[in-house]
User: Fold these one by one.
Assistant:
Number 1:
Amino acid sequence: MAVTDDLACAPLDALKGVGPALAVKLARLGLKSQQDLLFHLPLRYQDRTRVSPIGTLRHSDHAVIEGEIELADVHLGRRRSLMVRIADGSGALFLRFFYFNRAQQKAFAKGARLRAYGEVRRGAHTLEMVHPEYRLLGEGQETQVEEALTPIYPATEGVGQTQLRRLIDQMLERIRDTPPRELLPPGLLPPGLPTLAEALQLLHHPPPETSLQALEAGSHPAIQRLALEELLAHQLALRHTRHQLQALRAPLLAGDGLLVRAFLAALPFPLTGAQQRVSAEIARDLATPRPMLRLVQGDVGSGKTVVAALAALRAIESGYQAALMAPTELLAEQHFRNLSAWFEPLGLRVAWLAGSLKGRKRRDMLEHTALGTAKLVVGTHALFQPEVRFRKLGLVMVDEQHRFGVEQRLALKEKGVEDDSHPHQLTLTATPIPRTLYMTAYADLDLSIIDELPPGRTPVETVVIPEGRRMEVVARVRAQCREGRQAYWVCPLISESDVLTCQAAEETSTILAQELPELCVGLIHGRMKAAQKDAVMAEFKRGALDLLVATTVIEVGVDVPNASLMIIENAERLGLAQLHQLRGRVGRGAEKSSCVLLYAAPLSAIAKERLHVMRETNDGFVIAQRDHDLRGPGELLGTRQTGLLALKVADLQRDADLVERLATIAEGVEQRYPELVEPLQVRWIGAAERYVGV
Ligand code: ADP
Ligand code: MG
């Protein structure tokens, strides 16, 4: 069979010099097969291919120099050091050693020739190299330099550069005789890209004329070649998942429209155009016998809940149940309250399940769910528990999906399996997904965008204020609440410790209650019991509380239209996505709302930029794009932690133009070279970690 597949399974200990002990250490670097070694690319390179005249060197250059020792002295400065002065006719510099022994010192004889490699730094008087690598050159000795740029690999304790180089060189030797299988069909490749073997040779041993800059920026064709192949492999895997899911059967949820019409008639507002469009897209999916896989993206406050309600009603009309999951109890409860208020008048029972639900209430809930008398079940991840059984689950909806792991979604999906039929899946997120990320990590989902806010909203005005002016902000809260409006005061995470964070919120609420004795100040944080949180939230919603001090538990989804001022303390500690989510809690009514971002100086450059972005725009999409630019896509959606799209070579930002071409190339491979799909996935994703259907 193909060489590639062999390498993917070829064990490392078949290589010269690899025993069981080394194999264990290599595994720590993620290197398990011979192929892994081949794809273990250098982090950076050193140029040891030429000797630089000392006179041409500047601070921070990395260079090989060669010259004659003029003197070697022990200096007794702040730190005792051995200073060796080297001159080559163009200039002179010092080699400085803090650690040295007598033998070493003696070897630096005046007049001896020496070659050194190291980083050049500005010393007290002249340039110097601290602890360079060096070699004394004997009389008339060959003075060869390296023939290629020197790769520096990601290494680990017990596995050094030399060892890695030796092993990788064995692999390169091997592929020189038998090149690895080409998995990118030439007809579909953008022109000018090297073959896989060429790319690997070049990346492990770049010839001296290779642009280090292009290598390090990732724009070099050899890197682009590998990045494209990697992205393609992931793309094919996602498409494969999608094809598989689409080959499954799902219930036809065409509905008779009765519930939907009754619901819309009772709704106190008309749907926005965007809500109508997205609902129609969902209705079309539900009316086909294949599982829907749709992601609804809509900025905070765009009215995703109504869209979810409509989808649920279509399932219910068709004789099925629907489930809606939220990431926190608070949100699940709020959904439960909203949806019950909408559904109960239609004669539909809504059940609610969270970890905190116990005893008889829990048994009741489980029973209604199992019997099918509960038409809609709202809850947290407690819905995943095996004891939760549905009678006829036709639709699974997940709010703010990026907080759920892949396995959790899978577990819930399995609950619907009956007669070989799988539930439809709808995901709701307020996090705008940049195009490149959508086209890669989400290529298995259809996308609907609610790109319109309900009418009558005035944009939230955002100001950025240093902590020193906190009293002004307190006065602002007082003025606002005197007018009958309400406010949030958010204390973000102050440490990794949940306890400390909640304590800080508690303290803040005590202080604010003293500073604002005429106001009713409430407190909500993550360590309170669900019932307690619920009670506080209900009071705030009712208007019994003027000011609500909170940790970031109120981040998503909380809806109190009369709240029109939000203070976020230590705003410099929060990311853009989170700030935007928090700010979305205000500006939900028709009144003008504002958000005060309090910060503690000094601000890092990135924090300054974030606060600036928040002040400049309310547009979730712009914010997401900036967030993406500032910190990279993996973190943005937590894809790193879910293991989705762990890229080795490619970089979604850097390789955006490759991403643009992916769909076309993937389609071409599927149609004309289907035999390449599997090997590509084995090579880049690994047989064990193929994508599960989500
Ligand atoms: P999100 O998309 O952030 O989940 P919600 O579904 O919570 O937004 O809706 C935010 C608020 O807007 C809610 O109070 C909701 O009742 C209201 N709303 C939703 N759709 C409309 C509409 N078409 N017109 C007016 N208000 C709406
Ligand atoms: Mg919501």
Number 2:
Amino acid sequence: MIALGADHGGYRLKEAVKKYLEEKNIEYIDYGCYSEESVNYAVYAQKVANDVANGKCEKGILCCGTGIGISMAANKVKGIRAAVVTNEFCAEMTRRHNDANILAMGGRVIDCETAVKLTDIFLNTPFDGGRHAERIAQIAQIENGEQLQ
Ligand code: RB5
């Protein structure tokens, strides 16, 4: 199950991603927004991030104008690693190295076709583990208020 969310700036990308998920028979929950009327991105970031953090959804996809604000908000939820991605290399690497669990994209930065391609890479690239697992664990330590050595 994939959790989807967007503000007005990312609405068109979210709709394109939704169409892709439907074509691939991938289940999703669409938390909105549902039009290009102006809204606040943190509302959608929180809904998607909560679902990913509590395991209801395996991954999340968030879109706003740049992908930045909505990823910042999502990353405030414990356990979330949301990555703003604008190209195929970063889509692959943020899965392989960062084990990103939310993909964030910007509707004023990339087009719908690119968003679908990045989504496809994000959903189909596994985490490499190994030395990267240790680095992910350190991110969690920071989240828990621990001092890294
Ligand atoms: C909304 O105008 C815009 O600020 C928002 O979509 C996003 O780009 C914020 O990071």
